[in-house]
Structures
1.
Amino acid sequence: MTKIGLCITGSFCTLKSILSAIDDLVARGFDITPIFSHNVSTFDTRFFKQAEFEKLVVEKTGKTPIKTIVDAEPFGTREAVDLMLVAPCTGNTLAKIAYGITDTPVTMAVKAHLRNNRPVVLSVSTNDALGANAKNIGALLNTKNVYFVPFGQDAPFKKFNSLVADTSLIVPTCDEALNGKQIQPLLLR
């Protein structure tokens, strides 16, 4: 059984689609270990109450989310997974991964996983992807073992710099990444 570390960050408007993606991953037979960013671990939003979201994740994965840097660090050693998936991947998390900043459970899990040359899949959801974060996407597109879920502009005439991944493509993206390939096409219309 393929083991996936599922890092969930604070693009709260996309959490409902992430719950559907978890269903797809579980149906495909993946063993999922959830890892929450600090914001997902603590914030109640108009989209979900934190406790409600966490309960749904536990029900779907059968595992309590990892919520601390200390608990995320072993993903580089004894707690190895086959693939690390960051979904949704906020612009903040994207920038930290690009620059090697390790100050959250998610960035620690990704760093620990990458140091063992294992695949990391990013499911981008950020309002500044074509602005301040464009350089970080470019850098990560050129980074060994980093793969992207195909993405496109979600509201090009209202949010000019925003990109969102098509979460229905998470499973095929993970399949390709496990084989060392970037799913194509990467850019959606």
2.
Amino acid sequence: MSLESDIKLLGTVSMLSDFTEDKLRLLAFSAESRDFRDGQRLYSAGDRADCAHVVSSGEVALFPPGESETATEVVGRGALLGGLSLIVDGERSMTAVARGRVETILIRRPLFRRMLDEFPEIAAGLHRRLSANVRDTTARLMTVRERLDRLGN
């Protein structure tokens, strides 16, 4: 893919929505292009999570730990895999496997963190977005808890 198409694709990723076109250009220029063949693992559950992939073409199947038969989700172009690994150290919670030929834009944590350091407005926007996501997830979990409590009574 060309630099311009990478910039356009990165601009569609929710986590990167506070990046201006110039900052997306810097990110795209500094990121790496990766190619995967059918059945090849992008990463495995339990691997160290130190980068994220943006799917630029093809599909990626996601499997829970220990499962290799049934994917819980299949994602395609524009999907961000491992977005939180750009911010915090941790392990992969899923195994990602290419379905057919897959191309990704690989963003390493040091690059992303450097951008957050150099552009504090991006960090502030990301903080707001992640905070809203946590509040939303908490609200949904409380709804599930209430349903489970009603079933238990």
